[in-house]
Amino acid sequence: xTATGGDGEVLFxxxxxxSYLRVTAIDAKTGVEVTVxxxxxxxxxxxxxxxxxxxxxxxxxxxEGGSPAGGAGKPGPKGRGGLY
Length: 84
Known about the structure:
Largest sheet: 4 strands, antiparallel
Shape: elongated
Domain DUF6898: 7-61
Low-confidence stretches: none
Number of domains: 1
Mean pLDDT: 82
Organism: Azospirillum oryzae
Region (Disordered): 60-84
Protein name: DUF6898 domain-containing protein
Number of strands: 4
Structural class: alpha+beta
Strand order of the largest sheet: 1-2-3-4
């Protein structure tokens, strides 16, 4: 599913996981993606809006000098993360 607006095209992927609906929003131009989840019985439109808001938040954070584009929200390397 896609949506277009003043900020460009956003691609959506809906995936049911048990009693939850997982929504991934991907900015078609930059490839930045975010994921949100909510009850499967809830409003898909509300989840889409939440995903778009999170996507814009991440993009603004990246523009202000946060993580590089596409890097926000990705986990670090697995294993022991510090000195022991």
